[in-house]
């Protein structure tokens, strides 16, 4: 990635100024931030919290022609609480509580999750893929963080009775899949649906929720 990429982004965002004049005024960064991030990460920023951005740091990267710095900077912002580490951390905190080994990220599983999420962009239907992996789904209007989805699944902990190995009063299958002891690999993804909702999916390999078995 080179300066021409950044130049094209800036030109798209503020077509009435020359590149050099745009880079002089740090205030103009506010005008190009959405176009820059959306082009770099390939999705809309609608609903993404933008408070606390370090504009001067990003501006320096553009002035110096360091497009990689700009890319890394915005990738870090856009993926906040949606990165593989974030998904893993939320899962593994719950798994530590019940004494099962931590999950590890798997790119193949994550690719499967992303492909399925992308297939739901038009309809946003909450229906399972019925593929080879365990699966948890969630949706939230506008911008649902990956960590929020995992926390939502974990609210079902209160409904799982370990002694009887049954759900009590409400469903608990999302929770039991999160903490399923023999599931070792995780892959998660999100997709913004055409109706404005965010579709979130996590897949687990091997799958959990095996009838007749306990998660831990």
Textual characterization of the structure:
- With 216 residues, the protein is an alpha+beta fold.
- It contains 9 helices and 6 strands, in the order ααααααβαβαββαββ.
- The strands form 2 sheets. It has a 4-stranded mixed β-sheet, sandwiched between helices. The chain has a two-stranded antiparallel sheet with strand order 3-4.
- Helix 1 crosses helix 3.
- The longest helix has 15 residues.
- It is globular.
- Keywords: Disulfide bond, Plant defense, Signal.
- This is SCP domain-containing protein.
- Pfam families: CAP.
- Belongs to the CRISP family.
Oligomer: single chain
Morphology call: globular
Structural class: alpha+beta
Q: What portion of residues is helical?
A: 40-55%
Number of strands: 6
Uncertain parts: 9-31, 37-79
- The pLDDT mean sits at 77
SSE succession: HHHHHHEHEHEEHEE
**What is the count of helical runs?**
9
Overview in brief:
This protein is α+β, with helices and mostly antiparallel strands. The chain has helices at 3-13, 19-24, 29-41, 55-63, 67-78, 84-98, 107-119, 146-154, 173-178; strands spanning 104-105, 134-141, 160-161, 166-167, 185-192, 197-205.
Topology record:
Elements lengths: L2 H11 L5 H6 L4 H13 L13 H9 L3 H12 L5 H15 L5 E2 L1 H13 L14 E8 L4 H9 L5 E2 L4 E2 L5 H6 L6 E8 L4 E9 L11
Parallel strand pairs: 1-5
Antiparallel strand pairs: 2-6, 3-4, 5-6
Helix pairs in contact: 1-3, 3-5, 4-5, 6-8
